[in-house]
Amino acid sequence: MHRPVHSKPMMGRLILSDITRRAALASGAALAFTGPVLANAQVSVFAAASLKPALDEIAAGWDVTLSYAGSGTLARQVAAGAPADVVLLAATDWMNWLAGQNVLVGDPVPVAGNRLVLVGPAGVGRVMLSGRGISAALGPGRLAMGDPMSVPAGRYAQQALETLGLWTGLSDRLLLTTDVRAALAYVARGDVPLGVVYKSDAVGTGVEVAATFPADSHAPILYLAACVTARPEAAEFLSHLRASGDILAAYGFTAAPTE
Description:
Layout: H1 18-25, E1 43-48, H2 52-58, E2 64-69, H3 71-79, E3 86-89, H4 92-100, E4 105-113, E5 116-121, H5 131-138, E6 143-146, H6 152-163, H7 167-170, E7 174-177, H8 180-188, E8 194-198, E9 207-212, E10 222-227, H9 232-242, H10 245-250
Parallel strand pairs: 1-2, 1-3, 6-7, 6-8
Antiparallel strand pairs: 3-10, 4-10, 5-8, 5-9
Helix pairs in contact: 3-4
């Protein structure tokens, strides 16, 4: 029996209380920040990897340093004292955990939403979200997705596959990645026939959306941003980000909910 390409055993169902446990296990020296931060950067922004294309454009002309990784990795780094001024995460549970560490300045604010899609290489066509449909499209290959233990997109993917009754049949055929953009790269290179990523990831990358998961098959996908320092420049960039909905929409993100 094939098993997911992964260094840790998968659990049948992940629950939000695992956030605290995983954060505690990952604390300590292993969390020392290794991302590219410039000592004289005006604003240091830590952002979920799925935001990269859009955020690169949003930040153009601003004196900022952008560091991308999975939301769980970023949250743990910020809690451990990494030099971030602004943090943007793709999961409310990780942001809530980070707020509980008393490292945020002010309340997190929503900036965008997203949809979860099944993608394949150009020409893949439509794939039915059924065991037979996905297995036929996979052939002998694997399904790439983020690691549900640390990557929000992977957690949403597991939720969706469980809701649709597909998780048990596919859990032995997974290629788990450290962030959602890595899962996309496996598909774009042709290393795997299918991947589960955000809709925004599929924009302009050469992959094709084969199916869109029902919105009610997983928790709402919401991007939250918060300041980590009280520097005025950090608050100014956060305001600029919140006013950049047109750019986010052009990259496939949905509008953030308003209350």
